[in-house]
Amino acid sequence: MSRLISAPFFSAHPVFRRAEYAAAVGREPGDRVVTAMLAQHLKAGNIRRIAREVFAPVPKHADARNWSVDRFLAASRLRPGGVIAYHSALELHGYAYSEGYDVQVIAPGEPRVFEADGLTCRFVKPPPGFAGPAAPETDGVTSVDRLGMEVRVTTLARTVADLFDRHDLAGGAEELINSLDLVARVDAVALVRHARARGNAAAAGAMGFWLERERERLGVPREVLEALRALAPSRPRYALGAKPGSAKTARGWNVLVPVDVAERGFEGL
């Protein structure tokens, strides 16, 4: 009987929270009947537990012990208000050069790494300029469809600005630049807006250097470059993980970037 009641909900929710399931069966989230129903489905192998109060239905004829849930969808449901970001957002938008190991999520609460079978999620605290899930409209956040469910993710422009600020969450400067080579169009005005909100002069300078080098390919307006130049450092600063002895000055931007990044345009890459 429990399966008959739950089957339509399972079909429409590849990942779900306990509260969603309770509402679907007409119960309060803390109801013991909900606990009993979920326990029954877990025992029968109809669902598997991803985290506390987060579950995923197991397709018919699949083995709950080795079946893998969609990692982006699962990560987006671990904390209410979670937004897929950084390198993981590049993956969702289709611009990541390499597949990431963990799924990066901007979410309220303490930053930490959560691990479950087939899933590693890195929770990152909301960065400067990020209004958060309580805001009616969060600038730089959009939604994508994942297995019929909505997943919140940072926009491409917000993602690029965030990654110049936190290149470590891109897997390093090389992975970031390789990924950006795949980008054919970006909202350059939004890039300036997000860079200003982040308040990281070195990141703004590095992004300006990249945009200037790619201005023809991406169609970057001159006023965008000038706006970013105003946000760049007033004196030379290291960016994108560059270190003394292995850095080169990005002329006109007051930043020193890794040599491989600085010379990339001269290698025909």
What does this structure look like?
The protein has about 270 residues and is α+β, with helices and mostly antiparallel strands. The protein folds into two domains: about 1-55, Arc Repressor Mutant, subunit A, CATH 1.10.10; about 70-265, Beta Polymerase, domain 2. It is about 40% helix and about 20% strand. The protein is built from twelve helices and twelve strands. The protein has helices at about 1-10, 20-25, 30-45, 70-75, 85-95, 155-165, 175-180, 190-200, 200-215, 215-220, 220-230, 260; strands at about 15, 45-50, 55, 85, 105, 110-115, 120-125, 140-145, 150-155, 235-240, 245-250, 255-260. It has a four-stranded mixed β-sheet. Strands 1-3-2 form a three-stranded antiparallel β-sheet. It has a three-stranded mixed β-sheet with strand order 10-12-11. β8 and β9 (about 150-155) form a beta hairpin. α5 runs antiparallel to α6 (about 155-165) and α9 (about 200-215) runs antiparallel to α11 (about 220-230). The chain is elongated. The N and C termini lie far apart (about 60 Å). About 40% of the residues are buried.
List keywords for this structure.
alpha+beta, Beta Polymerase, domain 2, 269 residues, 4-stranded mixed sheet, Arc Repressor Mutant, subunit A, 12 helices, 12 strands, elongated
Question: How would you sum up this structure in a few lines?
Answer:
By secondary structure, this protein is an alpha+beta fold. It is built from 12 helices and 12 strands.
How big is the Rg? 22 Å
- Principal-axis shape equals elongated
How many strands in all? 12
| Order of H and E elements | HEHHEEHEHEEEEEHHHHHHEEEH
Largest sheet: 4 strands, mixed
Mean pLDDT over all positions: 90
In terms of structural class, how would the helical and strand content be classed? alpha+beta
